[in-house]
């Protein structure tokens, strides 16, 4: 979701300059293609990366490990004066959040497990 105040502040700081703004509309829920890429490619490959580093996990354990590692899966809210923290499930995320998690995972795996994951194939705009 766009933060219009931050955008306005940015534009005010750069008066007299040309700004090119790219807007990408994302569906509210993650697409089936994104879900298939995540569970059909990312999770099995991440499992292989962990295995190469001596950890033998199931696909479910790999998914849960990623949820614990990735800060984008964490939902925090203040309830009755106390912070409550819980791990969100993939199905609770919107398309933009899923894309961020995929990008974060690709980067984290490369930096920490020295394993390269292929980014999703981007469809060319006409």
Descriptive report:
It is a single chain. The protein is mostly helical and 126 residues long. The protein has a domain at 30-113. The chain is built from four helices and two strands. The protein has a two-stranded antiparallel sheet. Helix 2 (32-52) packs parallel to helix 4. The longest helix has 21 residues, at 32-52. The chain is globular, with a radius of gyration of 18 Å.
Quickly describe the structure.
By secondary structure, the chain is mostly helical.
User: Beta-strand level of the residues, as a percent range?
Assistant: 5-15%
Helix content: 40-55%
Q: Could you give the order of strands across the largest sheet? A: 1-2
- Give the integer mean of the pLDDT values: 87
Distance, first to last CA: 25 Å
Contiguous runs where pLDDT drops below 50 for at least 5 residues: none
The shape, in one word, is globular
Radius of gyration: 18 Å
N to C succession of SSEs: HHHEEH
Structural class: mainly alpha
The largest β sheet comes out as: 2 strands, antiparallel
Number of helices: 4
Q: How many distinct beta strands?
A: 2
């Amino acid at each position: 979701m766009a933060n219009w105040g931050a955008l306005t502040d940015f534009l005010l700081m750069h008066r007299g300059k040309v700004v090119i703004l790219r807007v990408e509309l994302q569906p509210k829920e993650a697409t089936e293609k994104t879900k298939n890429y995540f569970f059909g490619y990312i999770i099995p490959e991440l499992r292989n990366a962990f295995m190469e580093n001596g950890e033998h996990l199931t696909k479910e354990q790999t998914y849960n490990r990623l949820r614990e590692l990735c800060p984008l899966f964490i939902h925090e809210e203040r309830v009755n004066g106390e912070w409550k923290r819980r791990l969100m499930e993939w199905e609770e995320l919107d398309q933009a959040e899923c894309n961020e998690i995929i990008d974060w995972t690709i980067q984290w795996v490369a930096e920490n497990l020295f394993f390269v994951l292929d980014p999703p194939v981007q469809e060319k705009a006409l």
